[in-house]
Amino acid sequence: MSATPAGDSPFQQGSDLLSTSQFSRESVERLFDLADGLRPLGRGEFACDVLSGAVLSSLFFEPSTRTRLSFESAFAHLGGHVLTTTGFTFSSMAKGESIHDTSRVISGYSDVMVIRHPDKGSVARFADASLVPVVNAGDGDGEHPTQALLDVYTLRRELGVRDKQVEGATIAIMGDLRYGRTVHSLIDLLRLYPGVRFRLYSPPSLELPAEYFDRADAHRLTVCSSVAEALADADVVYNTRVQRERITDEATSQAIANTVLLNRQMVTDHGRPDLVIMHPLPRDSRPGSYDLSADVDDLPGLAIFHQTDNGLMVRMAIFCTIFGIDLAAVRSRYSISKWVSAKPVPRPAPYSAD
Amino acid sequence: MSATPAGDSPFQQGSDLLSTSQFSRESVERLFDLADGLRPLGRGEFACDVLSGAVLSSLFFEPSTRTRLSFESAFAHLGGHVLTTTGFTFSSMAKGESIHDTSRVISGYSDVMVIRHPDKGSVARFADASLVPVVNAGDGDGEHPTQALLDVYTLRRELGVRDKQVEGATIAIMGDLRYGRTVHSLIDLLRLYPGVRFRLYSPPSLELPAEYFDRADAHRLTVCSSVAEALADADVVYNTRVQRERITDEATSQAIANTVLLNRQMVTDHGRPDLVIMHPLPRDSRPGSYDLSADVDDLPGLAIFHQTDNGLMVRMAIFCTIFGIDLAAVRSRYSISKWVSAKPVPRPAPYSAD
Amino acid sequence: MSATPAGDSPFQQGSDLLSTSQFSRESVERLFDLADGLRPLGRGEFACDVLSGAVLSSLFFEPSTRTRLSFESAFAHLGGHVLTTTGFTFSSMAKGESIHDTSRVISGYSDVMVIRHPDKGSVARFADASLVPVVNAGDGDGEHPTQALLDVYTLRRELGVRDKQVEGATIAIMGDLRYGRTVHSLIDLLRLYPGVRFRLYSPPSLELPAEYFDRADAHRLTVCSSVAEALADADVVYNTRVQRERITDEATSQAIANTVLLNRQMVTDHGRPDLVIMHPLPRDSRPGSYDLSADVDDLPGLAIFHQTDNGLMVRMAIFCTIFGIDLAAVRSRYSISKWVSAKPVPRPAPYSAD
């Protein structure tokens, strides 16, 4: 029930979250500061009931278990109650119910809705009919704004513990740059940070679409012809899975046969010692996949699980913003957790700085 | 574990809710008064933990997402914990487990069970084996008592804000009167209210079954041959979807081809200015459907979403009754919600009187 | 992230629960004492929020509704929040994600994970990658340790109210002793109790594997050739379903055609008057099944539903142990439940001694 198209409204209390374009540099940094403040809650040092009585309807019209669990865990950590619906049980829509009716009805049971849907633009249509704020958890070829937010939040943290900043950082982006929605959203959101330089490496035919090069923004996009070239001077390497079946060119297909996108050897040969290694996950660990190899997993720069851990913090911050709750309000509802479930072996600290 | 058939027991603390026949005029009005008192809770003005520690097992052997979410949201609003199971995962019954065993086992984990099942009478069989109260959320061709209750509750509220009463009201019922379980339950439950007059309109072969005309009750049932005739003097029009494939008569099929059941033009041409428009939902919004048109959606009498919103209040009242909780007990466990998720644009008030 | 194989670590705060081999006689009795102390909580006499703020990820890669609900209800009774995922929605693993990545990611959202998986050993692989404790809810042909624990807990209680002890008890085990994982785990766990005697009855070709006879432990295993022989002097009879299609021998198949595994007549003819009747459930109640007959259901020794009821108590005790919560801590977070949902007819006491 938005007065203006929700994608154009700034993200604030009571608003939908449909697109990263709703953020300014100031509002995205405010969100990240809030996420930083919520880390003790996300790590279980405190219990909190600030969202007691609030109901989240988590509606996944296509499966995305990890995204769903991350949102639901964030809401539960704030003391709210989660009601889950996954794709197979949307019976009324099969009987011809419109998105408008479905959304309006369920919004009457809910204080906020998180929606994943396979069709681009569909989540905005849910938002138009809803009485309560709607969060886009991915709408097909459209957007997945919380993924881009947690990626930039992770960049900020990982670079921060290395005494660097996002501004002026060099980020190698490798893999499927054509179809990879995650990569597009990341580049878009990073326009808020002047001076970021991207080094792009992809198999032929999976290059970044031309429109990204035409934009008059502060980015410097450099196309590289090898992993070595992409990694040169990079502070961060962001990898995305390549589905081999998308490569139709025979020569390319042969050239990358029996190789992986990135492995430990390539990192140690061509990367800086403090290189941050990122990936939106899932990565394909099957034999023959063209993806990030598991042999990088004990490199000190591995941040792929920090990304998912950070997703919890960022999504808590998103819910707090939507419900008009600041850090002081959260802390006023902290109680010390009496329970500790840590395994007897030391739980690895997500960050040295943490 | 009922001493008497549960369908014959009055609805009260600790009892199953299987049928609308468990209600007297007094007990149904008491339920509605309680639902009225719970509205501020349902609208998120307060959080409440009166059912803290109670567990609802929500068992849907067939999908009905909105009914399920309405029940679950009602329980969560009272502070209880919801455990959801949807049809696809009932593995033990596929291995030959009886309804008795399934129900007895799950009741040992639960404080109340809400059950939807495709087979008429099956929910009563669950209730017979259960240690805890069972609520019927629809059993195929059997009953769906909470739908009838929320419909009559909505009638009471909508007529109330128009300075009318359910007694003596004229209700047009249109659509599939033969197979529409909702319509049958509504007519049955309204027998508690003397002097209600029904004006019936349906395509030939989908008429109300003869048994409803044979009953010696206070109703006046008038069969109408057109929408215009049905709407004459009606205070309320209650629409139900017609599945075109159920119309086997060729002449009828042709007569209603390219028409809808009810649209804005018909309402403004033939209806009273304060006509209340109801529908149990889902409505079929696909092109060519014979159902309530979406062009009525901004008419002031549209109550179809008030019905679903009211479902939350009625189901909260049902849980309160089952657990022996009156309004004073609920209010003693209110805490003010610090959070507000309302969208920046004004959230439409469900009722002028609200 | 276990330093030693988890199956070899004692079960204690912060540890995984993968195998019954993690228990000593002392630690299993401590768990059962805790379960006894939690009974008033499991029966709804109190609400408790000792696990407030804790998140359980309940991951069922194959359906097992009752096991899932039992775990989830136990966690909810302690005030924790449950996030459920059932098999059909594990999309990322279908895209080639490893168990390691899936487990590590979801553990970042969770304080504990309960996992059911069809492949033997897979739950231990989840545990290796998880930041938080993992509970095995059944891994195919592997283990289902909480089933064995609730069985022995039930034995202790049922024998206790009959002034007997587990030590020295005679237990008839009947049915499919070859493929019945439950039976194997029960026999294994009962090695902690010296002097238990087993009387085994199964159709030919479904006998207990030879390895159980070769072990040098305190058990006395006696193979019987008839139900009557097995029941002689038995304090308890533990039945398991036989899938007729597993019997390939024609003579055997004919011999047990048109019979059940155990019925009321056999019990009254051959059993002690205080015989305890157990079954892990589900039992196959379809006509022609070779299982425990429903006509035993009103015998005073029927304990099959006590087993499932006890599962709630044992699983609460497991969570308390994992989170380092003793009975005093639980009781310090008790609040009296104001609500009572008991049906008006007397709810049968699970035990005369309860």
Topology:
The structure is a homotrimer of 354-residue chains.
Chain A: H1 25-37, H2 39-42, E1 46-48, E2 55-60, H3 65-77, E3 81-86, H4 91-94, H5 99-107, E4 112-117, H6 122-129, E5 134-139, H7 145-161, E6 170-174, H8 181-189, E7 197-201, H9 211-214, E8 220-223, H10 227-231, E9 236-239, H11 250-256, H12 264-270, E10 276-278, H13 304-322, H14 327-332, E11 334-336
Parallel strand pairs in A: 2-3, 2-4, 4-5, 6-7, 6-9, 7-8, 9-10
Antiparallel strand pairs in A: 1-11
3D structure, described in words:
- The structure is a homotrimer of 354-residue chains.
- Chain A is an alpha/beta fold and 354 residues long.
- The first copy, chain A, folds into two domains: 6-143 and 310-336, 3-Layer(aba) Sandwich (Rossmann fold); 146-305, Aspartate/ornithine carbamoyltransferase (Rossmann fold).
- Helices cover 35% and strands 14% of the residues of chain A.
- The first copy, chain A, is built from 14 helices and eleven strands.
- In chain A, the strands form three sheets. In chain A, strands 8-7-6-9-10 form a five-stranded parallel β-sheet.
- In chain A, helix 8 links the parallel strand 6 (170-174) and strand 7.
- In chain A, helix 1 packs across helix 13 (304-322) and helix 5 (99-107) packs across helix 6.
- The longest helix of chain A is centred in the last third of the chain and has 19 residues, at 304-322.
- The two termini of chain A are 41 Å apart.
- Residues 1-6 and 345-354 of chain A have low confidence and may be disordered.
- Chains in contact: A-B, A-C, B-C.
